């Protein structure tokens, strides 16, 4: 399996689009891995997770052709993850396919995502060759040949999901956006050893545990998943989805290198835009 991170920032991106703080200035000056678009990912170049406001440019940069994506699973309805308005550009006049626009784009998520997608497409799903399927938490689905299981987490005022994704004997957990998982989700993961686990690290050095996490909470989740047999020494752990708020520590700017100095001894790597992991 290959996981490609298209964007790795929280809602305001990095540099923050209206921000002039010390960290955002550092990010601007350094460029490269310090620049972060809004979060999203693609598995094996075909199964997309979330559809951010930056998905057009982040996909172009990574060599992903959006018209070839057939399935998008949404974590929740926040606009940095569910930029449903851009789905209308699949409509006639906005795009021309070689031949017919007959390949549907299938989208999946909770009821809040359904409401946002339906409103954005003005209920004319066929016009845009898009459909939406509501998926229930803790019920595995076959989506494009992947076994995808939404798991409930505490984030936003909705039944936000993180995803357990399996194919060909490989298993990964995409854990965004969320605080420390709820007990039911930890219990569901017991014994399901993952090859890769990607955890929300919006608050960086801070100790946030609810709604979002900081790195100290990532360590707590890792320990619990190890104890539950959902991870072992070979599992790849990634901290992902960063806000400038968590990277402008009082005593230093947590640039990629600085964050890695903190994270590496604990067996974590920091995501960056365009990062690909094969496992
Ligand atoms: Zn987010
Ligand atoms: Zn800033
Ligand atoms: Zn969110």
Describe this structure in words.
The protein has 279 residues and is of the alpha/beta class. The relative contact order is 0.16. The longest helix has 13 residues, at 215-227. Helices cover 20% and strands 23% of the residues. The chain has a single domain, classed as Ribonuclease Z/Hydroxyacylglutathione hydrolase-like (Metallo-beta-lactamase, Chain A, 4-Layer Sandwich). Strands 6-5-4-3-2-1-14 form a seven-stranded mixed β-sheet. Strands 7-8-9-10-11-12-13 form a seven-stranded mixed β-sheet. It binds zinc ion (ZN) (3 copies). One zinc ion binds at residues 76, 78, 155-156, 177.
What value does the average pLDDT take? Answer: 96
Number of helices: 6
Beta-strand fraction estimate:
15-25%
Helix-strand makeup class: alpha/beta
**Count of domain modules:** 1
Low-pLDDT sequence parts:
none
Give the number of DSSP strands: 14
CATH class: Alpha Beta
Strand order of the largest sheet: 6-5-4-3-2-1-14
Structural Rg? 18 Å
Mind summarizing the main beta sheet? 7 strands, mixed
What sequence of helices (H) and strands (E) makes up the elements? EHEEHEEHEEEEEHEHEHEE
CATH superfamily: Ribonuclease Z/Hydroxyacylglutathione hydrolase-like
What would CATH call the architecture? 4-Layer Sandwich
Helical content band: 10-25%
Distinct compounds present: zinc ion
